[in-house]
Amino acid sequence: SGAAVATAKDPPAGAAASRSTWQIVEADGTKHGPDETFQLEVVDPAPVAVGGKATFQLKVTPGKSYHVNTCDPGESDCSPYPVKLELTPPAEVQVAKAKLGLGDVAEIDKQHMVLAFDAVPGAAGSHTIAGKFKFAVCQEEACHPRKVEMQFVVAAK
């Protein structure tokens, strides 16, 4: 099974299930693991050859009574909350885009969102790509902006 996942049910800090880790950053700067507002799965790619393409997937599932802030087709009075993933790869790893947004989302509806990106390692070993992921989950009365600090680990052989 080449893909490992870390979800809100499995705290990411030190989780053996995934090489990649994440934590929520609150507006006051405090950091913590998963909470009730959403689940985040990071699907790590299997190790690739040097120069090969490794595809990471982020899957967001809102918690109970929450939904992804997106507009249904034909919905008028609607403005989706921006989605932003900023990647800071090390020198030996290339990414096609360092800043991804709503237009880069692979799948989105009120129940889930999937964002993917490719990384190409230029040297053997394990390489960490830092990421900052911003999005919102909403309830009927208000939306809750979420900021997540991420560490994506790509392995090259």
Structural write-up:
Mean pLDDT is 85; it is low at 1-16. This protein has strands spanning 21-25, 31-32, 38-43, 54-62, 67-68, 84-88, 93-95, 99-101, 105-109, 112-121, 125-138, 143-156. Helices cover 0% and strands 50% of the residues. The strands form 2 sheets. Strands 1, 2, 5, 6, 8, 11 and 12 form a 7-stranded antiparallel β-sheet that branches. It has a single domain, classed as Immunoglobulin-like (Sandwich).
Number of helices: 0
Tell me the domain tally.
1
Uncertain residue ranges: 1-16
Give me the count of strands: 12
Report on the biggest sheet. Answer: 7 strands, antiparallel
CATH-level-2 architecture: Sandwich
- Overall, the morphology is globular
Oligomer: single chain
Order of helices and strands: EEEEEEEEEEEE
User: What would you give as the CATH superfamily?
Assistant: Immunoglobulins
Helix percent reads under 10%
Radius of gyration using CA atoms only = 16 Å
